[in-house]
Specification:
- The protein has about 130 residues and is α+β, with helices and mostly antiparallel strands.
- The protein is built from one helix and five strands, in the order αβββββ.
- Strands 1-2-3-5-4 form a five-stranded mixed barrel.
- Strand 2 and strand 3 form a beta hairpin.
- The protein is extended and about 55 Å long.
Length: about 130
């Protein structure tokens, strides 16, 4: 009788070990799913960054350019088309911008007090 009880205990221990092994595999799979979900969320957040097109008005600073973005806005009351512009300091890692270039910039984490955009690419070089 004692042998049967021991065998039952061994079988129960094996089942418990298999269950632990399965949960470990499930945990690894869920961790991989979480990593892929985090990568997807990061990619989605990156896609949410604002991209703008503007003209370089100054490149006298090292690794920084000033880009002016002009937009046309319709006045609410008078329906006149107004031109509004804003200047951004942009991080230009290779100092490749020249005054007059048309560039694509993207929002990024603050790099300094004024810089929170970076140069993506130059769309049109000045002649």
């Amino acid at each position: 009788m004692d042998n049967m009880d021991n065998m039952d205990n061994n079988v129960d221990n094996m089942d418990a070990a298999d269950a632990v092994g399965q949960t470990a595999v499930e945990n690894v799979e869920s961790a991989e799913n979480l990593e892929s979900a985090a990568e997807t969320a990061t990619a989605a957040a990156r896609n949410m960054r604002k991209e703008r097109i503007g003209m370089v008005v100054s490149n006298k600073m090292d690794k920084t350019a000033v880009v002016k973005i002009t937009e046309s806005v319709k006045h609410d009351k008078y329906s006149k088309i107004l031109k509004r512009s804003i200047k951004f300091k942009v991080h230009d890692q290779n100092n490749e911008c020249d005054v007059g270039d048309r560039v694509l910039i993207m929002e990024t984490k603050p790099l300094s007090r004024d810089k929170h955009f970076r140069l993506v690419r130059i769309l049109e070089k000045v002649k």
